């Protein structure tokens, strides 16, 4: 596990109406859901507060791409949200490819017997868990932090 940076991280799945938040333990073994934050003027501040509550060392924001790795309508929204987090927090913010996290989250919830409607409130948290777990696995396998750093400079 050379190159592993010890410390809790938050995974953040940015949606139009809701933002799913997940965290991992300091050893990066397991990502677990934290909460679904309503997407509004207070969502960045709430996520910064969650990061403080969990002593996070880093924020990993899912970057939605299409299967060919191209930008989608949601890509710029996620970049803007990540930039707002970077400006509001002293923590490093990284964008990580989350191409299949929401699809995986829906599949996992379906296989657990939940309907699409009953899953709506937690699917964002589950997507955040999936993207965070993928990012942790990448870092453990490569010894390098996942994704791309977001500048701390205000846009």
CATH class category name: Alpha Beta
Biggest sheet strand order reads 3-2-1-4-5-6
Counted up, domains total: 1
Secondary structure: number of strands: 6
Q: Main β-sheet: number of strands, strand sense, barrel status?
A: 6 strands, mixed
Q: Average pLDDT value?
A: 87
- CATH topology grouping: Nucleotidyltransferase, domain 5
Helix tally?
4
CATH architecture: 2-Layer Sandwich
Would you list the SSEs in sequence order as H and E? EEEHEHEHHE
Rg of Cα set: 14 Å
Kindly estimate the percentage of residues that lie in beta strands according to DSSP: 15-25%
Structural class: alpha/beta
What does this molecule look like?
- It is a single chain.
- The protein is an alpha/beta fold and 155 residues long.
- 42% of the residues lie in helices and 25% in strands.
- The protein has one domain: Nucleotidyltransferase, domain 5 (2-Layer Sandwich).
- The chain contains 4 helices and 6 strands.
- A 6-stranded mixed beta sheet has the order 3-2-1-4-5-6, with helices on both faces.
- Helix 1 (43-53) crosses helix 2 (73-88) and helix 3 (101-111) crosses helix 4.
- The longest helix has 27 residues, at 116-142.
Using brief descriptors, characterize the structure shown.
6 strands, globular, 155 residues, alpha/beta, Nucleotidyltransferase, domain 5, 6-stranded mixed sheet
Please give the structural blueprint.
Elements: E1 8-14, E2 18-24, E3 31-38, H1 43-53, E4 56-63, H2 73-88, E5 93-97, H3 101-111, H4 116-142, E6 148-150
Parallel strand pairs: 1-4, 4-5
Antiparallel strand pairs: 1-2, 2-3, 5-6
């Amino acid at each position: 596990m050379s190159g592993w940076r010890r410390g809790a991280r938050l995974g953040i799945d940015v949606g139009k109406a809701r933002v799913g938040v997940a965290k991992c333990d300091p050893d990066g073994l397991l990502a677990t859901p934290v909460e679904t934050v309503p997407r509004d003027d207070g969502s960045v501040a709430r996520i910064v507060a969650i990061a403080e509550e969990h002593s996070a060392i880093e924020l990993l924001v899912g970057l939605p791409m299409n299967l060919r790795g191209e930008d989608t309508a949601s890509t710029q929204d996620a970049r803007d949200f990540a930039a707002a987090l970077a400006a509001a927090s002293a923590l490093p913010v990284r964008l990580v490819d989350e191409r299949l996290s929401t699809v995986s989250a829906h599949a996992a919830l379906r296989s657990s017997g939940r309907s699409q409607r009953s899953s709506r409130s937690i699917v964002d948290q589950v997507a955040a868990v999936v993207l965070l777990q993928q990012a942790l696995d990448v870092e453990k396998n490569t010894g390098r932090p996942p994704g791309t750093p977001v500048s701390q400079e205000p846009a």
